[in-house]
Amino acid sequence: MSREHVLHKVRTALGRSAGQPVEEPPPVRLNVPEAGMEARISVFFERIEALAGKTHRARSLEDARAYAESVIAGRRALASNAAVLRESGITSLAGIESGVTDGAQLRGLAASVACGITGADYALADTGTLVMLASPQEARLISLLPPVHIAVVEHQRLLTGLDELLSILPHPAEQTSSMVLITGPSRTADIEQILVRGVHGPGEIHVVVV
Amino acid sequence: MADPKLQFAIFAATGRLMEKRRKAVNAEVCPDYQEMRTQANAVKRHTIEHLDHYLELFERNVEAHGGKVVFCKDAPEVADFVLGLAKERRASLIVKSKSMTTEEIDLNERLEHHQLEAVETDLGEYLIQLAHERPYHIVAPALHKTKEQVADLLTERLGVPRETVIEKQTMIARAVLREKFLAADIGISGANFLVADSGAVVLVENEGNARLTTSAPKIHIAIAGIVKMIPRAQDLGVFLKLLGRSATGQPLTVYTSFLSGPRRGEEIDGPDEFYVVLLDNGRTKVLADREKRESLYCIRCGACLNHCPVYRKIGGHSFPWVYSGPIGAILTPQFLGVNHEPGLPFASSLCGACAEVCPVKIDIPKILLDLRSEVKKAEIREGTNRLERLAFMAWAWVMRHPRLYEMAGMAAASLSPSGDGGGWVRSVPLGIKVPPVDAWLSQRDLPSAPAKSFRQLWRERR
After folding, report:
1. CA distance to B55, B61, B124, B196, B296, per residue, from A17 (Å)
2. Which residue of A has its CA nearest to B41?
3. B219 and B212 in contact (C-beta within 8 Å)?
4. ipTM for this prediction
5. What are the residue ranges spanned by the domains of chain A?
6. Residue of A nearest to B262 (CA)
7. Where are the domains of chain B?
8. Which residues pair with B219 in a beta bridge?
9. Which of A148, B43, B267, B318 could disulfide-link to A204, CB 3.0 to 4.6 Å?
């Protein structure tokens, strides 16, 4: 279509010629504070709870499984292919679908179950955020379609914040087509600025740190 | 302005947003807020000044990940592209997540004209679409609707029983839109940022509708202005924090999606096709103006609207185009021409609140002044302001003749009505019924004329 036309107009507006060299952009500004693991976990939980998310500190994988089981409470659930879910035994709980690799099948399940269970590639303490990279282990829709999202996070994946994520993952596009940051339950305040949770995504979010 | 309830609602809502922002940028919780603004301004300046380079870099990276970039010069080109693709893929239903850019080009109307159903999925946008209106606010499109109006709207358009509880209204919309998401052939999103070094589209939101729009359908089309570019993924460290805090006082919004290309290899879900439409639609015209180019740094946080005494009083629908408030007042004349709505740059007290809260430091008051001068120059060129020129010529002539000036002053003082005792004339009973003058006076109190003029006092003191 208008590729050349638009680029030409941009260059003319700026007084630049095609392929003219570019000076360096201003240096990147990222601040990564020092914070021990205990401090990270407590800030992380505080933030999630402030957003009405639920948190659980699991002392062991069995503990994580027991917590997940209590949240699922016999309802139908769909688990991702994250290793931590298999290792903790969550995928072998009764009524849990897992091991799905087909897109259409996954979508149908995710649209009908009560709970979606995932791992998390990273978590950001200072905002209470889960970082999900789409991969064969993690589908996009499990953390999105079911009304309840349970995420099991291994503690070594807990970073201080967004700046640390961007410093260890400067080029997310090299690893995945989709990186999503999730900070609390889905919410809206579009009618009279009254907060309502669970408008399109999960209204209930449980974060377990192992 | 004739609706005091609406006026109060706007005032209260923008006040709450101001308070949220204030708490989020406070030095205790965000000690480097000012440095982040400086950085964001420098990065945007650099990107805009080298935009051709970053557009090409972005394009290469999108293509490297299996996506496609489509440059469009105006609204019809965007519509043609979407219609062409829809026809080729036999698509009939499109879900959309909030995008001011597509509002700017009336995309929905253009698509519906060709029997394509395009459904807005952000709750506020959905309500606006049901009501056939324009967004009231960049961030909160249905800011002006009460729950009673929403109840009527849902009953009328969806045929559901009348429901006035906001939670339940939200769930009605959720159920309707969930069906649409799962049935849609194409998802159209905007972009909060385009990341050149990644070929990525970044979307921020709280509801999850942008995630659904970009994950459920087989085709994802992102439509963005060419100026949404930032150089590096790492720049998001500054921009995401500034955007969330400035817009709604959130350190990060609920969802931030960083999307680069269609579903890859072994990934389980996601779209099979990924397109980014890069739209000019007047942006290069603004770019050519070195003095006002910075208008294009805007990241659409809406903070200038919330802090603007004029916006807070008159609301979003009083503005002539999709972009309202101070940023609208500088974008509209630059995109549509200063003659489109020549009064717009003058509808400001130049209080400077907009510039103070702008996360990328756009000097809106200065640009308003430039635009005022352009409006006046255009009027002179076209000879449309003869009366005004005549009045100012007469004024200048009087000012150059001191005796005449004094006589005019005395005449005005003797004609002016007496005040209310406190030295103010609260209403002007003069019987002036000349149309612009009486309207002007009906909204203003005048100080009553002093007994003696300054010149008289000066002579007496000597």
Report:
1. 14, 21, 43, 19, 21
2. A26
3. no
4. 0.98
5. 32-209
6. A177
7. 28-284, 386-461
8. B186, B273
9. A148
Nearest CB to B261 within list A28, A139, A177: A177
Q: Regarding the domain with residue range B28-284, which homologous superfamily does it belong to in the CATH classification?
A: NagB/RpiA/CoA transferase-like (3.40.50.10420)
Answer yes or no: do B71 and A135 touch at CB < 8 A.
no
Separation between Cα atoms, residue B162 and residue B152, nearest integer Å: 7
* Averaged pLDDT score across all residues of chain B: 92
In CATH, what number does A32-209 get?
3.40.50.10420
Subunit contact A200:B178, Cβ cutoff 8 A = yes
Contacts of A194 in chain B (CB under 8 A): 147, 166
**pLDDT tens digits, one per residue of A118-150:** 999 999 999 999 999 999 999 999 999 999 999
Q: Are the C-beta atoms of residues A51 and A206 closer than 8 Å to each other?
A: no
> Which amino acid is it at B82?
V
Q: What is the pLDDT of residue B444?
A: 74
Which residues of chain B, if any, have pLDDT below 50?
none
Per-residue CA distances from B88 to B81, B84, B92 (Å): 11, 6, 11
Which amino acid makes up residue B4?
Answer: P
Residues from chain B that touch A99, judged by Cβ atoms under 8 A, are none
Residue B432, pLDDT score: 57
d(CA B245, CA B240): 8
Interface test with B, best of A98, A113, A188 (most B CBs within 10 A): A188
